[in-house]
Each structure stands twice: as C-alpha cells, then as structure tokens.
Design brief:
Blueprint lengths: L1 E4 L9 E7 L6 E2 L4 E6 L4 E5 L4 E6 L6 E3 L3 E7 L36 H10 L17 H12 L25 H9 L34 H16 L2 E9 L1 H16 L6 H15 L5 E3 L4 E3 L5 E3 L1 E3 L2 E3 L2 E2 L6 H17 L5 H4 L4 E4 L19 E5 L3 E8 L5 E16 L5 H17 L5
Helix pairs in contact: 1-2, 6-7, 6-9
C-alpha cells in the first residue's frame, strides 16, 4: 500500500485546501495521472499519482485544510484492469489524516487561530496544553478561554500554615521568558507583536458594534494568508524606506521610439520592463540586497530572480522573472507579459511564484506619488514604483548653463531589511537603479 501525501507546494507553504477530487475509490490510475486539485495561498495545483495502481482509500474531504506531509489517499500498487463501470458516487472519505498529525502545524507546533494565539498570550496559557475543538484539532479562542478559566479555578481550601510565605505575583507578560514568547509568536497562524516598554496584550481593540449599512466581508483564504504574511514581515524585518527621484526623459523617448514595434509582436513595452532590467543589473553590482536572513546568518543568492507583483482574480500575486540579469529588456517584457496573462486567467503555477530573491511592485497609473511597500518575505528588499508625472526639472543646457525643462519624473521607494542591509548598500543600489534609468542605455 502506497501513501500519497501532501507535498511542499512552495516556500513557506505549510498547508493546502482540497478543492476537487478527480478520482474515486476503486479507480485505476496511471503514474502522473492527476488525482486531486489543491489550493494554497499562492496558487492552485493538480497533484499527480506518484505510481500506478488502484485507489484503495480516500482520506480527506473536499474543503479540508491539510498539512504538508499528511496522507491524502492510499494506492494499492500494481497492474489492474480498469473496471467496466465506475462506482456511482465517490465513497465517503475517512476521517482526518493520522492522529499523529492532527492539531499540529508542519513545524510540529499547535494549530491555532490568530485570535486564539492572542488570547493565549494575554492569558499566559501554553497552547500545547489546550485541547482544540476545531477542524483537525485547531484551537480556537473559546478553547483558550476555557483552559485559562480552568487554570484559574480556586483550589480546595487548605488549613493555613503560619510559616508559609505569600505566593509571588504572576509574572507580567513583558517578563515572560523570551523563548516562551518566541514559541507563541512563531508557531504559525498569527501572532501578537510587543508594545515597547509595556509588553504583550496591554492594548485591546474595542469590540465591533454593527451599524445599519455596514458590510462584513469574510477573509478569503488568500487574503487571510496575505494578512498574516504582511504582519509577520513588518514584525520580523526592521523596515527602512529610502526614496529616489528619477528623470525618465531618455527612457520615455526610448519607449516611444520602440513601443509600436513591440505592439506588432503582441508585447507591451512598459516602463516596468526598464525598471526590472535596471534593478537586475544593480542587484548584480550590489549583491547584499539579493539575499535572505537565516536563523543566525544570511545567504547571498547567486541567481537574480525578481518577483513582479501583478493582479489576479484572487488578489495580488508575485510571479518570478528568473535570472533576470541575463534576459535584457525584450526577454523581461516577454516573461512578465506571459506571467501576467496566466495570473489573470488563474493559470499561474507554484513554480511561477516560488524562488524570488527581490521584488518590484508597480501600483499602476493611479499609484500616487510614492509609497513604502512591505517586504515580500523572505526577501530583504522591495522596490516600489511611483506615479509618472510631468514636472519642471533643472538640467544643464548646451552652453553649460542650468535651464528649466519639463520631463516625466517618477519617485521610486526602496524598502529594505535593516537586519542585514546597511544604509550605504541600500542607497548605492537605489542610486545605481536611478542612474541606469536616467541614462536609458538599454538594448531594445
């Protein structure tokens, strides 16, 4: 009997949602035949059969959230004749994955909702001792409240002992051991950042009170994970933002001279392509920006893989332009165009979204002046393009005298992780991107 398990579907992905079974118990399948469809926060994927055989048992339902490594179904290996008539309906899937993995995350920590983790921090409750009542043993806020109430229940009265010393007061949240706080914070599914000088749980958001006309919009799976990712990034990475003003006069002229030629080939020559090209070159010259932080070290990547934020029906996704420094403008235009088209029709894959070493985001024609983007973990930098506007700038005229002219200008904001990126490196990188764009010596 062969166990088909949930694979690791990309960086930082620890679980997936079963969206569709393509086979039933008793079906004979061939190696690499799609068995089911799985959705993660990044993309939807079909999982193929790792070997030929017959589906002996289906272990998870459509809609189940399944951890990486959990058993999805069992295959009876061997050669089987295809049955003349398939079963009328899919058999009822068995209960959840093995009990050993129930109630635990991929890292072995307790599964709990963000509200439960906040409550645990405020109530000083160890989540590993709480019995979850949710799906797969997931701990909810009510479970933590019950556990906290049980721990605080008065013990049976005992005869007073004259020599007994008074019990020390409970340690405040800020005085908890760092290891305990780190365990609660980093165990996945949400966390509570500290308030400087006060500690955890000192501030509570007032309860929401419904009013006529209010619209409560439930989080989608992707929005929930995105929210968690963004909050984690702001907590884990000390963000610093630096801004550069870029005169795009030469780049705009180069684009105007070539955009019709690109259009005839079905491609759009945009300013984004020039920015990604300049970014890739600057990253090669400033490798400390093309990096990620590890446990007690950091790694500088050899390849330059730039994630480019694009819109999709399910929200923002960041497909990756691999080895961008080797492509040139034409290669980047073609790659970004293909990735954006697949994202818009929901055909983006996990491979398309994995492995970025740096990110560029373009808020579009209504992007406003500039803004500091949140770093896309585990990168240490993200470059945000601003709105292109015509402005009066001062340039040196043919006679060496300064003169005022009207040029298209854009502000670019670099957000970087100050844990490993120093200001000198960050400013040198952004200065180089600016220089490359202003010279516009690109081969198109």
């Amino acid at each position: 009997m062969f166990d088909v398990t949930m694979p690791q579907l990309g960086e930082s992905v620890s679980e997936g949602t079963i969206t569709k079974w393509l086979v039933k118990e008793g079906d004979v399948v061939q190696k690499d035949q799609p068995l089911l469809e799985v959705a993660t926060d990044k993309a939807d994927s079909e999982l193929p059969a790792p070997t030929a055989g017959r589906i002996a048992k289906v272990l998870v339902n459509v809609g189940d959230v399944v951890l990486v490594g959990a058993v999805l179904c069992q295959l009876e290996e061997g050669s089987f004749a295809q049955p003349e008539k398939a079963p009328a309906a899919a058999p009822a899937p068995a209960a959840a994955p093995a009990a050993a993995s129930a109630g635990r995350s991929a890292s072995g920590e307790a599964l709990a909702t963000p509200a439960a983790r906040r409550e645990a921090l405020e109530s000083n409750v160890n989540l590993s001792s709480v019995q979850g009542s949710g799906e797969r043993g997931r701990i909810g806020k009510d479970d933590v409240v019950r556990a906290a109430g049980a721990a605080q229940a008065p013990a049976p009265a005992a005869a007073p002992t004259p020599a007994a010393a008074p019990a020390p007061p409970a340690a405040p949240a800020a005085a908890r051991p760092a290891a305990q706080i780190a365990q609660l914070v980093n165990s996945g599914g949400g966390f509570v950042p500290p308030i400087p000088g006060v500690g955890y749980g000192a501030f509570k958001v007032p309860a929401y009170r419904p009013h006529d006309g209010d619209q409560v919009v439930p989080f989608t799976r992707r929005r929930r994970i995105t929210a968690d990712h963004m909050t984690y990034s702001k907590f884990a990475s000390p963000h610093v933002v630096t801004v550069a003003e870029v005169d795009l006069h030469k780049a705009a002229k180069l684009r105007e001279a070539n955009k019709d030629r690109y259009k005839k080939e079905g491609l759009g020559l945009t300013m984004l392509a020039f920015v990604v090209t300049a970014t890739a070159k600057a990253l090669r010259e400033t490798p400390s920006i093309n990096a990620r932080v590890l446990e007690d070290s950091f790694v500088i990547f050899k390849d330059i893989n730039i994630g480019v934020a694009v819109d999709s029906p399910d929200g923002l996704v960041v497909p990756v332009v691999r080895r961008a420094d080797e492509l040139g403008v034409r290669g980047i235009v073609r790659t970004v165009d293909e990735l954006a088209k697949r994202a818009r029709v929901g055909k983006i894959t996990m491979d398309d979204l994995s492995g970025a070493t740096f990110s560029v985001t373009n808020p579009g024609i209504k992007g406003n002046l500039f803004g500091g983007a949140i770093i896309n973990q585990p990168n240490v930098g993200i470059l945000r393009m601003g709105e292109i506007q015509k402005r009066v700038v001062v340039v040196e005229g043919p006679d060496g005298e300064d003169q005022m002219v009207i040029h298209p200008v854009m502000y670019m904001a670099l957000s970087y992780d100050h844990r490993i990126v120093d200001g000198v490196a960050a400013n040198s990188f952004l200065w180089r991107v600016t220089e490359l764009l202003e010279k516009a010596e690109f081969e198109v």
